[in-house]
């Protein structure tokens, strides 16, 4: 049994399909199937059962997981020890909620690529929790620390959110001077049954019972707000990317949340991934600080604009 066979076995076990594993390794499904059949023949045991849901590990397959992962760690460590490059190369797959992936990780990826030209960065943006045990990503960014799983959890940075709306919407809508006025406004937020983490239930903190327009995507919510369709709770770091959108009621509604970096516990032995995790953390902190500073610089003028608009409407 050689490492290449174990590499294919691990990919299928984690993806639970030949096609999914093949995409990760750059091989077609038929080749993956032949390699798994060859491995099973060589050890005299069936490793997978094909079910309607995909490929499931048998008892023999489950027993092979631990030694296969140990081999994976050994190969990774040997590769890192043999490398004398000043930069860090190879593939790095980062999983993140779409708000972070859209508004923060592009700038972070640029910084990492500049520092490590041999690095291939993959950003997987999904509004859900990533399964690192199945190696859906090398590391993931979450909005709350997980309570279970063999993970290394690191708090990255706090970020702020405020109620925001486009200036055109504010100019055409009823006055907004306090939280009580929200009942006269169209709200935008998450689809309630698709909120995958309790930390994302923003509207509950405004006192608004339901939103008129909803999406499971932060980016879709932000673009809907930018279109002047209503107002919603948004990340401060996203506001600089949406001209015309301004924070409102900042003295009454202000939320703070945190990003967490999640890694599989077995990856602590990887110097490469540890260095990349620290570089990612530092770059993300800098980017949140930079973008939120831009918003704070505009807050006085934004609040003044809103108050002048309210005063104008009230006097007519």
UniProtKB/TrEMBL annotation:
PROSITE patterns: HTH_LYSR (PS50931). GO terms for molecular function: DNA binding; DNA-binding transcription factor activity. Keywords: DNA-binding, Transcription, Transcription regulation. Residues 1-58 form the HTH lysR-type domain. SUPFAM superfamilies: Periplasmic binding protein-like II (SSF53850), Winged helix' DNA-binding domain (SSF46785). InterPro entries: LTTR, LysR_HTH_N, LysR_subst-bd, WH-like_DNA-bd_sf, WH_DNA-bd_sf. CDD domains: PBP2_LTTR_substrate (cd05466). It holds the Pfam family LysR_substrate. Belongs to the LysR transcriptional regulatory family. This is LysR family transcriptional regulator. It comes from Paracoccus zhejiangensis.
């Amino acid at each position: 049994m050689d490492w290449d066979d174990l590499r294919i076995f691990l990919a299928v076990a984690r993806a639970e399909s030949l096609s999914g594993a093949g995409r990760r390794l750059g091989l077609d499904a038929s080749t993956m199937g032949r390699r798994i059949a060859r491995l099973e023949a060589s050890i005299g045991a069936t490793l997978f059962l094909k079910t309607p849901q995909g490929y499931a590990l048998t008892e023999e397959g489950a027993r092979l997981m631990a030694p296969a992962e140990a081999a994976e760690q050994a190969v990774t460590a040997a590769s890192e020890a043999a490398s004398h490059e000043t930069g860090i190369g190879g593939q790095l797959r980062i999983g993140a909620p779409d708000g972070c992936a859209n508004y923060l990780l592009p700038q972070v990826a640029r910084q990492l690529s500049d520092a490590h030209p041999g690095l291939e960065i993959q950003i997987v943006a999904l509004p859900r929790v990533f399964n690192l045990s199945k190696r859906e990503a090398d590391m993931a960014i979450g909005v709350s620390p997980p309570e279970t799983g063999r993970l290394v959890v690191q708090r990255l940075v706090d970020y702020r959110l405020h109620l925001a709306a486009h200036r055109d919407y504010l100019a055409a809508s009823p006055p907004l001077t306090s939280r009580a006025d929200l009942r006269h406004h169209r709200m935008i937020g998450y689809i309630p049954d698709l909120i995958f983490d309790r930390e994302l239930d923003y509207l509950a903190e405004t006192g608004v019972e339901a939103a008129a327009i909803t999406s499971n995507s932060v980016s879709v919510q932000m673009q809907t707000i930018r279109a002047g369709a209503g107002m919603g709770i948004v990340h401060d770091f996203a506001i600089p990317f949406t001209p015309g959108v301004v924070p409102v009621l900042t003295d009454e509604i202000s939320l703070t949340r945190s990003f967490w970096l999640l890694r599989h516990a077995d990856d602590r032995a990887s110097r490469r991934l540890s260095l990349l995790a620290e570089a990612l953390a530092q770059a993300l902190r800098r980017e949140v600080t930079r973008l939120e500073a831009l918003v704070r610089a505009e807050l006085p003028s934004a609040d003044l604009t809103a108050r002048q608009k309210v005063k104008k409407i009230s006097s007519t």
